[in-house]
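Dear support,

I submitted the protein below through the web form. The confirmation email said the job was done, but the results page showed an empty box. After a refresh the structure appeared. I'm attaching both so you can tell me whether what I see now is the final result or a partial one.
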Amino acid sequence: MENTDRRPDSGPELVPRERPGGAELAPQELPEEFAELVAEVSEEEAPLTRRRRLSAQISRLARRSGRAGWQGARSTSRWLTAEVLAMAPRLPVRDQQRLRAQFPGLDPDELADALIHGASRSAAVVGAAAGAAMVLPLPTAPVEILVETVAVVGIEIKLVAELHEVYGMRAPGSAADRMMAYVGAWAHRSGVALAPAGLVLVAGSPLRRRLQRRLLARAGRSTMSLGPLLTGSMFGAMLNRRETRRLGTDVRNDLRRRSPYSRHWTG
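What the results page shows now:
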């Protein structure tokens, strides 16, 4: 029988999975292009109008799922965790050399502040776009919240990774290993404390449970955007800006305490 879940030539879509009895589960996997959208919207030099267009694309991915609804804390946290772990290795991270070239004349603390400011602005734009989309029928709103959560967490994981570069504390291992370490740092709101080999993100592990709890809490706070058009947009932007800035500040402060650098670049 022909699969009608995806319309031809309609671009990547989120399609709700269904149980045999017809009960819907969380939306299916986000397309690989999603990480690229997250990376582009987090670029500090991108004009605000471009960030808004990218955020609108992220919202459209959620709207294409159409029917999927909230299915309880357990299934929701599992879906969020799986999507974040799949997205993280695809996020492009600027190394220290590229950051120094892009932000000449800044010492580590000043550069860290610039990165935190840029990430919080990007998260605010995503939150505003999701809040504005809440004029959609209510069954679509939970999916909008889930996709917004994954996007904002992607912006924050990229920020965590680049803060490690700023302070000369890159996690060891391959690029994929490092990104998993930065996911763990995001969950703990601190710098990387364990080598990638010491990270255990398999189902049921303490770190994975912590990650699931944090993701679910973040999605829960995003329900503040379930308001009228302007109110939801305003709260979505304010919440994401505040949360991203707080996370970045926590990680920066921890890295600064342990960094081999003081306030000046070495080399």
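Response: this is the final, complete result; the empty box was a page-load delay. Confidence is low (pLDDT under 50) at residues 1-27, 66-70.
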